[in-house]
Amino acid sequence: DGYSHLSAYERKRLKNITENAKFFAALKLHESAARLNQLTAKRQSHVTKRAKPKKVEVEAARRRSMRLLRVEPLDVPQLETFAQPEAEEYPQVLVGPLPMVPEDQAENSKWTEALLGTWMRISELKTDDADRGTPDIKRYQESLSSMVLSEENIRKVVKARVCSMAIHPSESTILVAAGDKLGHVGLWNVSCGSEEGAHVFIPHNFQVNCMHFSPCNPAHLLSLSDDTLRCGDVTRAVFDEICRSEENFSCFDFLEESACSAIVGHWDGDVAVVDTRTPGMSSELSADIGFRRTRTVHVHPVHKQYFLAAGSVDVGVFDVRYLKAKGNKPLSSLTGHTKSVASAYFSPVTGSRVVTVCADDKLRIFNSKNTQVLLIFDKQSNKIKTHKNSQLKPVWAVWDPKQEHCFLVGSMAQPRQIQIFQDTGNLLHSLCNVDCLGSVCSIIVVHPSQNIVVGGNSSGRLHVF
């Protein structure tokens, strides 16, 4: 057979392959497949395909509110600006002087006039400093115990997180200013006791980092945002522009009682000297003090040539008379901070003490003359807990201008409260109200002569004790 050399299994396998091949050949599958292809081709020739519509590649532009963009109607001529920005996500404030017109002026113009009129009237009155002095601790503690917070003294004054506050020195009327992270400045006449006592102005593009009423003329409210320093002059109803820069301003303080010059800190660590009397929008001097970041600057209450700067982990005292563009060294350094320093301030009467707040959960009291650490508050053991939430502004500790040895600080302790400490570590009092205060008051401002304390929170709400 020709296959005798194969085994029985292999011969059986070969036989099966041959029989299967004959079976499939008898089926004539290749002829059936060819016939099927012909029939399919004939049917498809009679079918007409519909053209698919093309997709729209460019979507229609989304409609945006002209009021929110702060764009004037087409039939109203716009004010001329130095640079016309392209379409941006946030509305832009014009360069140069701005009219002191609140956001809601169209609806409540008479209430706005009443607010500005009150500010002008109380600024003309001179405060009497003849009998003013630092009260003893017992009297001071008694005055703290008499301070209360009521529902009518709580108001949402600005739309976003409070970044700075200032209180008018008037002894007859409580007028508070607050700046938020959107560049809004809110003015609230607390004493009027009505809903129409607060109005919002928009003099800045970025968050308002620092605010002060002028010490010599409280008709002027100076506010500092990231890119500009402005002076709100109620006598002329205008926000003047004093200084403009792209270097991101962080804070400022007056170098003299006349408020003609100021020391301005920058987020990148530099400081600048600004004179309000000189023309132009630039500073008189920009100085590199060796800091990576400058968060607060504070001028000595007695010796105005000295100022305190606080940055990343650096706190130092500098002499403004010897500042130069490069190579500046502090006269003295307040060391020991291991993390970012949120604030550092001289004590209000003599400047002999400095209180600092650090992200290492400690408050430190220094002797400013020899930079010796007098006391370190452990925030955990002393219940001066600060928050880690990025939505909240870091807590600042501020001295009471009426008391040389006492300072105030917001706390996350429950119930929420503002705590008043001596520089010896003794807790004198806690300002709280379980029913009315349920948030952290990161920013605190104290009236220079009256028993009034204002705390601001992350939602734009002010609480007046």
Automatic annotation (TrEMBL):
Coiled coil feature spans: none
GO terms under cellular component: nucleus
A Gene Ontology molecular function term of the record: DNA binding
SMART domains: WD40
Residues in WD repeats: 334-376
Domain of life, per lineage: Eukaryota
Summary of subunit composition and partner proteins: Interacts with CUL4A and/or CUL4B.
Similarity-based family: Belongs to the WD repeat DDB2/WDR76 family.
Name assigned to this protein: WD repeat-containing protein 76
